[in-house]
Write a structure and sequence with these properties.
The protein is α/β, with parallel strands linked by helices. The protein has 7 helices and 11 strands.
Length: 238
């Protein structure tokens, strides 16, 4: 049985804990708001962190120290935080994603297929989340941007509205309000036609299930940095 330690007792941490309780192959090793100083976390096979960027360094250092698999879903990370993740991945398997839903992973793959024709369209990204989400644009919006334009060849214009040709710009629009779990759309606006790819999350359960799928994947893997593309389609000796 795979033992999971959850860092973060917020909404996502609670959703992950509830999903673990419903899985016969998983057990909850413990939960904490921060990385505990005691070695109790050492009993876990996988650490799942959906807490806060302030915890990222300590979580990565603990995973690296013990070689414990880490599933990291915290958003709002800086380049410094990503450096901690890269360092941890040298000594432990780390699955890092801004969004762990299966649908978003498929969305990302579809956008990668659009790269060759993206120059034919103006592109707009629209994302909406609940009123409590702190970062904007969302980590998922940035993930989708990277999928369609990995070389950053287009300028990102955040929060832009209005009409007119975008040229070499990708507009990114963030909406915050209510209890929206997460909605993301990418619009390809061409001459006399519009193609829209859209994903809507009905609850946080989809992210929790995806994180546990990632945990099963990561357990026993060689050290390295993995994505949901690796988890779902295989990669790096999956």
């Amino acid at each position: 049985m795979l033992k999971i330690w959850i860092v973060g007792r917020g909404r996502m941490g609670g959703a992950v804990e509830a999903e673990i309780a419903a899985c016969e192959d998983l057990a909850l090793a413990g939960t904490s708001e921060y990385v505990p100083e005691a070695d109790s976390i050492g009993a876990a096979d996988v650490i799942i962190d959906f807490s806060h960027p302030n915890n990222t360094r300590a979580v990565c250092e603990r995973a690296a120290r013990d070689g414990t698999a880490l599933v990291l879903g915290t958003t709002g990370l800086s380049d410094g935080h990503r450096q901690y993740i890269s360092q941890a991945a040298q000594k432990a398997p780390v699955v890092h994603s801004a969004n762990f839903s299966t649908g978003i992973a498929i969305f990302e793959r579809l956008l990668a297929e659009m790269r060759g024709v993206s120059h034919l369209f103006d592109i707009e990204v629209v994302e909406a989340h609940h009123r409590y989400k702190q970062d904007a644009p969302s980590g998922t919006a940035k993930l989708l941007l990277a999928a369609i334009d990995p070389e950053n060849e287009r300028e990102r214009i955040y929060g832009r509205g209005g009409m007119g040709a975008r040229g070499n710009e990708i507009g990114v629009h963030s909406i915050r309000g209510g209890t929206v779990a997460g909605e993301h759309s990418v619009l390809f606006l061409g001459e006399d036609e519009v193609l829209e790819i859209r994903h809507s999350a009905a609850s946080r359960r989809i992210f929790a299930r995806g994180a546990l799928t990632a945990a099963r994947f990561a357990a026993g893997k060689a050290p390295g940095l993995y994505s949901m593309q690796d988890v779902l389609w295989g990669g790096k000796d999956a």
